[in-house]
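--- STAGE predict ---
source: upstream dedup step, 1 unique chain passed
mode: sequence only
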Amino acid sequence: MYSQAELKELVEKAIANLAISTEAEKLTAPVKYILSIGGKRLRPVLALMSCNLFRDKIDEAVLPATGLEVFHNFTLVHDDIMDQAPVRRNLPTVHIRWNLNQAILSGDVMAFIANECFLQTPPASLARVFKAYNRAAVDVCIGQQLDMDFEKAAVVGHSEYLRMIEMKTASLIAASAKVGAIIGEAPEKDCDHMFEFGRNLGLAFQIQDDLLDVYGDAGVFGKASGGDIVSNKKTFLLLRALELSTGNTRKALEEQITEKNPDPAAKIRKVTEIYDSLNIREIAEQLANEYISGSLGHLEKVSADPERKKELTLLANSLIGRNK
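--- STAGE serialize ---
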């Protein structure tokens, strides 16, 4: 069995060895840049771990897994444009370092580089793997549209938000787990359990991401703390706070949301104080834990040696700071 660290190293090598054309340097330089600035590599590592759950030989899964990471980074390039985000992983975003048109075009070509990676899937598994990936790719786009719709919506319930992140974030993580299982020649029922393992994992991951924006260490997180608060982004924390707050607390929260040109530091402090008064952090952490428990419940049902499941269990628990 491979460790997470070993699998991440395999992914990094595969990314470094991608055959990216150098004919149009302005097109490919941003691609190499976004792929080189790090990240958790959660999706490809999960795919390889899922494959390794069912077989020792995982080399046939490396390039399809890399395709998942290329596609994920393509979505980040375009998300950063739509969000007008200046920083990604403590470095300038692609559209800031180059320009808007360059970022759009370089992001576009990454989708086709991802397809090329998937075409290296063993022929017997190619159709099922590509179908799982393509479904997730469409879901990601639907999720992004819902996210943009929410920006203009006066009222968004936290259940609507959970559906949005299921599409935008969890769908690709779910597909990663399923793709690995398919290439590992797992039984269909186990492939479905791995999909649900990944889906629950993805939901927990995004809720944890929302928490980290407010309560995380900016140096570790890779983005300035409180960015979601400053931009009035409809996160799980904000939506639950709006649902639970009443009286003066509700009035104070609405004032922070509607205030024009607020002092960012003051706004972050005031909104965080409101979150604390409503126990929003604890509510979000509890939900993330519930999703992790659901994820591990599906992993338990997979017909593989429990000893081989340990790395996946460690990965799931690590996403929300558990130690076991």
